[in-house]
Amino acid sequence: MLDLMVIVEALAVSALLFVPLERLIPVPDAGRRTLKSWIVDLAHATLGGQAIKTGATVLLALILMGHPQSTLAASLPIWLQVILLLLICDLIIWIVHRACHAMPLLWRFHRIHHSSTRLDWLAASRVHPCEQILMTTAIALPMLTLGFSPAATAIYLGVYEVHAVLLHANTRMSLGPLEAIFTPPRIHHWHHADEPHAYDSNFGSQLVIWDRMFGTAYHPQRRYPKRFGIDAPPEEDFVTHLLAPFKAQPPVAADSASTSQIV
């Protein structure tokens, strides 16, 4: 119950930060959400968020059982620890994220995140718990095994959480010169676009360097996607989203996002 209250409080802070931002500088012609989609994503944010925290904690405990805790990275200056965490974790996110699009088994779970037909601050919460437990564990392992300090870890995770919501927010806000390093919302919106020229692109989370390095960057200037989503999305229902990966998958058209994204 305590974790759930923390999640609700974080959700309230996100709303206070990003709802005004979306009202002040929204993406043109972004469309409107349905009430059903709001309810589904609130369930993902709260109930799904609690499942992710619990599952990742248990999985990490099992993996690290009997391993002595390292303090190797904690001896470094905190600013260097934060930079190393950003580089290491973001590369891990790129690898796992790319695998979620390339491997049909993982895509079954990741397609839930791509089922949103409209992006906004709450759409970041639409993730299947099984997929996110895997991602959270993959990110947390280097933090724990390399012995980064609690302060450095807290700074990185705080920035990561805020930036993850910003990436999905319905805003045309620019990061200015920082876009040479950090991903702005417009670029991640193209990752969610249901438009063939944008498929298999922009897998990075906070940094743009991995997509540039691996040839998956797609950065059109002054343009925004016209549509989001996937072919044959699951019904807008939280329980349906949880069960969908375990059921027979719908056939997909040759030019669909889900086909093109599974390479």
Word description of this protein:
The chain has helices at residues 2-24, 35-64, 78-102, 104-110, 129-145, 150-168, 185-191, 209-214, 238-243, 257-261. The protein is an all-alpha fold. It has one domain. The radius of gyration is 18 Å and the shape is globular. Mean pLDDT is 90; it is low at 253-263.
Features:
263 residues, mainly alpha, disordered C terminus
Low-confidence stretches: 253-263
**What is the share of helical residues?**
55-70%
Q: Measure the end-to-end span.
A: 41 Å
> Number of DSSP helices?
10
Order of helices and strands: HHHHHHHHHH
Instruction: Give the domain tally.
Output: 1
What's the overall geometry?
Answer: globular
Please tally the β strands and state the result.
0
The SS-based structural class is mainly alpha
Mean pLDDT: 90
Which percent range describes the beta-strand content? Answer: under 5%
Please describe the biggest sheet, giving its number of strands, its sense, and whether it closes into a barrel. none
Radius of gyration: 18 Å
Lay out the secondary structure.
Blueprint: H1 2-24, H2 35-64, H3 78-102, H4 104-110, H5 129-145, H6 150-168, H7 185-191, H8 209-214, H9 238-243, H10 257-261
Helix pairs in contact: 1-2, 2-5, 3-4, 3-5, 3-6
